[in-house]
Amino acid sequence: MAWDPALETAFHPKVVAMVGISSNAQPGMRRGPGGANFITSYEQLGFKGRIHPVNPKATEIMGRKAYPTVTSIPEAVDLVVVSVPAQALPEVLEDCITANAKNIHVFTAGFEETGEEERIELGHRVREIAERGGLRIIGPNCMGLYVPEARIGSFDRLPTESGPVAFISQSGGHLNWFSHYGQNYGIRFSKAISFGNAYVIDSTDYLEYLATDPETRIICMYLEGVKDGRKLLRQVRAINRTKPVILWKAGLTEDGTRAVASHTASLAGQEAIWRGFFTQTGAVPVESLEEMAEMAMTLLYVKEPPGKRVSVIGLGGGTSVASADVCNREGLDVPALTVETQTELKKFIPIAGSSVRNPLDTGLVFRNIDDLQREVELVTTDPNIDMLIMRPHLDMVSSGNSEDASKVIDYLVNICRNNPHGKPVVLVFHSFSNDPQEFELRSRLQVELPCKGIPVYYSLNAACRALFRLYEYYRLQKELAAEKGIMP
Amino acid sequence: MAWDPALETAFHPKVVAMVGISSNAQPGMRRGPGGANFITSYEQLGFKGRIHPVNPKATEIMGRKAYPTVTSIPEAVDLVVVSVPAQALPEVLEDCITANAKNIHVFTAGFEETGEEERIELGHRVREIAERGGLRIIGPNCMGLYVPEARIGSFDRLPTESGPVAFISQSGGHLNWFSHYGQNYGIRFSKAISFGNAYVIDSTDYLEYLATDPETRIICMYLEGVKDGRKLLRQVRAINRTKPVILWKAGLTEDGTRAVASHTASLAGQEAIWRGFFTQTGAVPVESLEEMAEMAMTLLYVKEPPGKRVSVIGLGGGTSVASADVCNREGLDVPALTVETQTELKKFIPIAGSSVRNPLDTGLVFRNIDDLQREVELVTTDPNIDMLIMRPHLDMVSSGNSEDASKVIDYLVNICRNNPHGKPVVLVFHSFSNDPQEFELRSRLQVELPCKGIPVYYSLNAACRALFRLYEYYRLQKELAAEKGIMP
After folding, report:
1. Do A191 and A89 share a domain, yes or no?
2. Peptide bond into A159 cis (omega under 30)
């Protein structure tokens, strides 16, 4: 369907009907009969509007007056959340048409994804009813909308804080996990949408909405299948210029394609076609939730790097070799520092047991704030270097004087937040220790710092992967801007 | 040099001379002047032999009588640990020759790896002296030996327990981290060797020793360069038949090669040559410490799988798709279960919102021990399946009745330890929650279970990678055994 501004109502409902909540449901119930968890989740988020349970067999559900039908609700309904069994869905939709309630989140599953004939047939009927009634169905087989600002969402303990990242997901589980897990990467959400089998509204419709949504700056997508690939390509290509689009296209392997059929009954498409999609749109490809979170954090908190030549500062010769291998494999270059920089570094770095070429094996600087500042200044002004990965060993930082340690961490935070020479600086803590204190410190910093806008990665691979994709994002933007004739 | 049974003395010394400990060193000192940390580490491990500090400017060091030279020590010295500055090394070695002390661990760095002319020259002199005196030099530029049984080692808080895994490492840092970190994977060590620039004893000499060492069942290696590649190939090919060899060959990228020169001044070699090495020897390739640990754990605790067709049991349709993609990309197949198995599963798994094809999206079974047992039994007896990856969501396991949860975990542990149908079963906890209790549970199980011999992986990628390599290890063994004429 074409974009309908009325979708705005679905994202910011004031009146919500919940159809299919069991008459046995108790307040606060999270599991068990019917869709009690939807009411519980909305309440937990602090939803300010009105929720009307619908069940012909009850007069009160979870402390609220229950209505036999949507039509019998004595006010206009902005959003209907449906969790009845699949066989009962057609009747509920007819009721919605009568009630003139157009926005329907259908949680109900069990259609063509089961592969069973009668359920495929049922799906066809549902589509027909929706089309006839002009219903904007979100789903079926999905967890619907999470909008922190509107205080709506379908999962337990969702964050209430809003932010600039949107997520369009063809998996409810991914939406749940990313909404929670994203916090560890400093990610807050404007809107997140689980849209399942996409009978009526497809990913491209949500994209169209988010393209002009002033609260959304970055768009993440998890897609299994797409109805109109050309439309998606045109859209992403246009949107990606101003709002980076991070896309996880799943089901590209042989067995993944089969798994997609069992999940959302989508056609997954071929890997080669999707490779072309990324080149032509400049969207950022990722392959897991972790990569999606890393990439969103990177686009939020790391500026455009001038190039892809990286310097790594860490401890240990073996670690330096591994660092160079990892950077190269992820597409980054690790050139030697200039002779001038090396000469300056040798003035305060001992020659035996260290290396000042690049990667820098000078871990001891993490115990001395003056040497650390001097080294970072030299490396970030080196003309051979575009960005810097700091890889402090937490036992080096934490085992010294604790006042020094906090100075070192403060300095690292500041240089990551704002390097005066305009070259990105990011952090990867190196820690293989079983020491409980060190483990606690790492776990704490790993979450606290991204929340303050400091890019911290769980591994060097993760950092390199994200930085290379960041570089590629900006490079492709320029390349696409320079092209002519294929503009949408 | 050819293998010398006297190396045994170095691994189990009774008398150790420590040359280069500062006269200011205090008992328990871990950092600071000279090689105090060597004495501290040996003491911490509970070394039962005698340690004699050597320093011409002191009469007592760290509570022990100090000797001016090795020669002046009034008993035969089994091992000398040298941490003097590079320029002083020749004189110390001459002293060792006079004292007839042949096993020398040279910590001292600052030779050809610095790239400086006079230090390269100094390295040549050291080699000449060692050859003339028949010295078995371990190093220089290395952390030497860690032997839990002999209670010797050069790092802080090394585990004292012995085990069947040996580690030959051209990086001291890697040895340190792997020795600690390996504990989280249920790995204990027989011998670990950091051998640095390998002036005299090279990786092949240590291999020769470990090949016949009855305490060693699995050999891990981190190599930057090799002196005699053909010899290494012959050795690994032969040893790998009875003791799996896990090899991390670092420095194979362009920048990695340069980093190797700065670290141990080795020639790193070309990627294509090393690819051939792995095919011809059947050794298991890894690319990081994490992968090495995963692989050692897998070879220790997972039996030979009958094939590479895997089933994954988890929760969530999106997760199922991602699982299939990951398995395929790592080389495993995820075939559909037989129609018979699917029919049996459908008898107790609801059709809507689940999938019983493969991957199995049946997360609710992790809340019901009877269903779980029934499902695992069906899947592991399915003729299409060779191994099983269990991917329980910790919030599913932990949020139910705690007695049920512990039953589920006990069952999972048992089925991983010993599946009656001879098909490997492994665990990957799925957890994206910020819930502190869940985080604590995961962290605890992630370490506790491998210590009990249960293969638990940090991610599905890690599990698939390790299982595919395990399959490949056995497959190549058979292929190589069937070949004729190229036997060593």
Report:
1. no
2. no
Q: What is the CATH number of the domain that holds B374?
A: 3.40.50.261
Q: With bands split at pLDDT 50, 70 and 90, how would you rate the model's confidence at A26?
A: confident
Chain A residues in contact with B287 by the CB 8 A cut-off are: 325
C-beta neighbour count of B18 within 10 angstroms? 28
Contact between residue B208 and residue B221 where contact means Cβ atoms under 8 Å apart: no
Q: What residues in B contact A316, CB-CB < 8 Å?
A: 171-174
Query: What is residue A106's predicted lDDT score, i.e. its pLDDT?
Result: 96
Question: Which domain, by its residues, includes B124?
Answer: 7-138
Q: Is the pLDDT of residue B486 over 60?
A: no
Residue A488 lies in a domain: no
Q: Where are the alpha helices (DSSP H) in A162-240?
A: 172-181, 203-211, 229-239
- This complex has an ipTM of 0.86
How much is the pLDDT for A5?
63
Q: Give the pLDDT score at B371.
A: 93
With residues binned 3-state (H G I as helix, E B as strand, rest as coil), the percentages for chain B, rounded to 5, are 45, 15, 40
pLDDT tens by residue, A310-363: 999 998 888 899 999 999 999 999 999 999 999 999 999 987 778 889 999 988
Neighboring chain A residues of B436 at a CB cutoff of 8 Å: none
| pLDDT at residue A386 tops 90 | yes
Average pLDDT estimate for A87-113: 95
A328, A335, A357: residue with CB nearest B262? A357
Residue B347: left (phi > 0), alpha (psi -120 to 50), or beta?
alpha
The nearest alpha carbon in chain A to B315 belongs to A173
**Same structural domain for residues B333 and B240?**
no
Q: Are A112 and A120 in contact (CB under 8 A)?
A: yes
Q: Does A433 touch chain B (CB under 8 A)?
A: yes
Round the average pLDDT of chain A to a whole number and report it.
Answer: 90
Pairing of strands A144-146, A103-106: unpaired
* Count of C-beta atoms within a 10 Å radius of residue A364: 16
Work out the number of other CB atoms within 10 angstroms of the CB of residue A93: 26
List, in order, residues 6 or more apart from A97 with CB less than 8 Å away. Answer: A129, A132, A133, A135
